[in-house]
Amino acid sequence: MDPISYLNPIEREICNRADYHHIPVAGNIELLPLCNMSCKMCFARMSREEMEKHAPMKTWKEWLEIAEQFSAAGTLFLLLTGGEPFMYPGIEQLYRELRRLGLIISFNSNGTLIDEGIADFLAKDPPRRINITLYGASDETYASLCGNPRGFTQVMRGVELLRERGISVKFNCSLTPYNIHDLDAIYEAAVRLDIPIEVGYYMFPPVRDNNRQNAQYRLAAEDAARARFRYEQLKYGNQFADMVKFSLESYRNYSQTRKYEKGYSCRSGNSVFWINYDGLMSACSFTTDCQVDVFRAGFENAWEQIHRFVETSGMSPACHMCKMKVLCGTCAAAAIAETGEVGGTPDYYCKLTGTYIALLEEYERKMKSEAE
Asked: In sequence order, which residues have a C-beta less than 8 Å from that of residue 289 and are 6 or more positions away?
C-alpha cells in the first residue's frame, strides 16, 4: 500500500528526505478485516467469527493513542483501509481526531457503502483522497468476482455523491481471471468520469493463513504480462510507441554499476509503515519477516525495530544484477510473499516481466515491418 502515490513535487521531496533520515512520514492502518463484499482473491477479509477468534477490533480511542505517537514521530500522511473502512465502528470520531492531529488522510474503499450520510460527513473536512477499487465495469462482473450483484451501480452512485461535494476520487483496479475481460471498459469508465486510475496487473499471493488458498484467483504470470501491455496501450495512447522504444532502450542498455547493498528498495520500513487491524506493525502489508505489536511495544520502539531489520535485510543478488529490473516491479514484499524470504527471487515476477518484454519486442517488430 502506498499512501503517498499522489504527492505533488514538494511533498515528494519531503518524503525523499524522510527516507534518508528514516522518519516514518507515512503510514497505513488496517482498521478491520470485515467487508460487505466477498471478493474471491482478497487477502485480508475475515468473517466476524474468524476475526473474534483471532483478535477483536481496536477501538477508535486505542487507534488514536497510537496515532498521537506516530504523529509526534513525524507522520504526515495516513491511509485508512480494511476490510471496508466505512464499516468500522467509530470511523467518524476517529477521523475527526486524526484530522485534529494535522494528519493528511486518505481512504481505501470499495465504494459501495458511500451514501449521502458518509459523503456529507466527509465533506465537512474533506480527506486528501478516496481511493475506490473498481472491480469491474458491470453489476454482472461484481456478482461473479465480489458476490455483490449491485456493486458497480453502488460504486457509481458513491462516486457521484463524493464528486458533488468536491471530494477527490481515484480508481484502483485489481485484475483477476474474473474481471480481466472488463479491462478496457474499466479504463474507459475512468476516462469518461475524468477520474485517475491505476490498474494492478500483479497481485500478491495471500500471506495470511485464513486466505492462502485465494492465490488461485490471481492471473497467471503470462496473462498478467498481457494485461500490463494492454493497460499501457490504453494509458499512453498515441505515445505508446514512444514508451515502447524508451522501455526497450532502457532494458537493452542497462548495466548494473551500483554495488549491492542491503536494505529494501522501496519506502517500506524506511519512511512508511503498516499496521494490521490486530496491532501488528510491519514495513508493509505483505512483509511478514518482521512484525511488532505496536500496542505493546509503543510506536517509537516498533518503528526502530522494523527499520533496523529492513536496513540489514538482503534482497536477491540475482535481482540486483538482472537486466529486467528496469522494467520489473518486484520488491521485498513480493520476494517474501512469493518465496517466503526477502532474499528469494520471485519466479512469478521473472515470468511476468520476461513475457512483457517479449510483447514489447513483438510490437517493435510489427512497427518496423509496417514502416518498411
From this structure: 309, 313, 336, 341, 342
